[in-house]
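Ticket 4471: requesting a sanity check on a complex prediction with pyridoxal-5'-phosphate. Repro inputs:
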Amino acid sequence: MNPLADLKNDLELRKLENLYRTRQILYSPQGVEVNCNGKKLLSFCSNDYLGLANDPRLIEANFLGMKKYGVGSGAAHLISGHSHSHHLLEQELSDFLGVERVLLFSTGYMANVGILTSLMSRNDIIFQDKLNHASLIDGGLQSRARLRRYDHLDTIMLESMLEKIENKSLIASDGVFSMDGVRAPIENLIQLSNQFNSALLIDDAHGFGVLGENGKGSIHALGLSMSKVPLYVATLGKALGTMGAFVAGSEELIETLIQRARSYIYTTAMPPSLAEATRASLKIMASENWRRLHLTDLVNRFRAGAKEFDLELVNSDTPIQPIILGNAETALRWSNTLFEKGILINAIRPPTVPEGSARLRITFSATHQIEHIDYLLGELRRLSEN
Ligand SMILES: *Cc1c(COP(=O)(O)O)cnc(C)c1O
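Returned structure tokens:
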């Protein structure tokens, strides 16, 4: 049968179920205020946590990088696409984190797929938290290893699963969960991975830049050495405000990924100018602690305000503050009403989150002001009282 034959019906069905997805067109940079189809909106849904995506210093570095290297990288890293600026960025990231080596990937999705497909194969087992990012799930599927998913944050369930196997295994978890902002039980995961001789992968896309001393991420935030987590991934498109990702780990790990990871080998390197912008961003991120302190103030203000009325918050202390609304229809209605009031927040619906847990995923940026939080709280209160 032709796979194109059913598309129309399937799309109609999605609309009926309030699961149809559409895109908002932006006519402005990321920021507190964005221009969306000509309408000015207060944005609470970017991952630009530190407010650096439109920082003039990054723009300048990007521009100078283009003057020096041109626009495109022209090839994959292993052909002729690996510029001196990519190389410097890798060194600066590994010095910053105190790890042996770092390898840049063009996206976080590709970094996760690259690690899992390079290290795992048929008959191996990958344990994953049920709320892990899709790229970890997809990397696991692509590796052909068996996937075992444990309930969100449930390390007791994970332990009982680990007890039953003798295969080569790997535990993968978001460091901060992208859809609820909750921190992973990293210390327990380290302990279990040691006890059962399993590898541990922490994907810190939402922790790097946001948590820990100078933004060094979830592992540093616990006062632990990076060497406790042999496979560490972070992305550059979120707190750092640019694009791309990196894997941090041992010399042998990085050399292995260079030899094996197909999502590294068979794809064009990120533009060198973007590596230059990221180098500038890393310096700002590490030195401007006020951005993280201000984020904490915003989160505290929001949570204190939301507790005064009946909003279902999640146990998150990060800039990701979802409001769980249950069904997709309600989440969509709230998102649309907020849009009318000049606030941009997406409704996150299944299959991105489990059935019955559709939500507004609210995120804060260091460029938000307390007044913005108060305005948001006012509109949320009105919605919750309806
Ligand atoms: C965003 C995200 C990724 C993917 O990173 P990209 O660079 O956007 O491909 C991977 N893991 C997590 C947890 C994420 O939130």
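Notes from triage: The two ends are 48 Å apart (CA to CA). Leaving this open until the requester confirms.
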